[in-house]
Amino acid sequence: MNRIRGWPVTLAEGPVGLRPLRLRDAVALRETRVRNADWLRPWEPTHPEMPLQTASLTPYIAMLQAIRAEARHGLSMPWAVTYNGVFAGQLTVSAIVWGSARSAQVGYWIDRAYAGRGVTPTAVALAVDHSFFTVGLHRIEASIRPENRASRRVAEKLGFREEGLRKRQLHIDGAWRDHLCYAITTEDVPGGLLARWRRRRDDVSGSGPFSDGAPQQERP
User: Fold this and answer.
1) Mean pLDDT score of the chain, rounded to an integer?
2) Buried b (16+ CB within 10 A) or exposed e, 68-79
3) CA atoms of 102 and 17, how far apart (whole Å)
4) What residue stretches are annotated with the N-acetyltransferase domain (predicted)?
């Protein structure tokens, strides 16, 4: 078992928090995903263990058990996103590779009720900084459907580079979908991504919060 340095960990910036997913999150996870089914469906990978709409808790408990096991083996860091302590979504740094790569994927989704408050970019910045400067990763990618303009704006605001199109990368909403690869490395944010995001947020402090927009797909 290869545990990740700095995991488990709880992180926070203002009202936005990241904490490790717990089995007892199954109820909040079910309620949030059912209520947001139409909001999430166009961007979510199609896999039965993570249903968008079901009355049963069993699939959610099974999913949480599986991703917590991955975390124990050093393959992922699955967080609940919170806003003022309330469950608001999920963010996972997954597909962690060590050796000469030291890379991972970031995926997330947010409750539509919390869109427009800067929750998503803040949560991603927290996760990226922890992954780079505590865990020791070098590169983090985000795969986003070209049609998901709101999520692309989040990546671009944070300074992720667009690196090209991956044809038919993931099965989403009933078909194999193309994705744009966005990436960021430690060299891009020597002072930290959160610090850069704070500066950008402060530069427009008179114009209201950045919109979170549509969710970026959670990696399976």
Assistant:
1) 88
2) bebbeebbbbbb
3) 25
4) 16-187
Is pLDDT larger for residue 34 or for residue 44? Answer: 34
- In whole angstroms, what separates CA 96 from the centre of its chain? 14
118: alpha, beta or left, given left = phi > 0 and alpha = psi -120 to 50? left
Q: How many CB atoms lie within 10 A of CB 103?
A: 18
Residues 149 and 151: their CA atoms lie apart, in Å, by 6
Helix (H) or strand (E) holding 103: strand 103-110
State how far Cα 67 lies from the chain centre: 14
Distance CA 41, CA 90 (A): 15
26, 197, 11: which is closest to 93 by C-alpha? 11
Supply the DSSP string of 5-60, one letter for each residue.
TT-S--EEETTEEEEE--GGGHHHHHHHHHHTHHHHGGGSB--TTS-SS-S-SHHH
Classify the C-alpha dihedral 192-201-87-64 as positive or negative. Answer: negative
For 212, list phi and psi in degrees, rounded to 5.
-75, -35
DSSP letter at 214 equals S
Six-digit token pair at 169? 């990368």
Alpha-carbon distances of 23 from 29, 46, 66, 138, rounded to whole Å: 10, 22, 10, 30
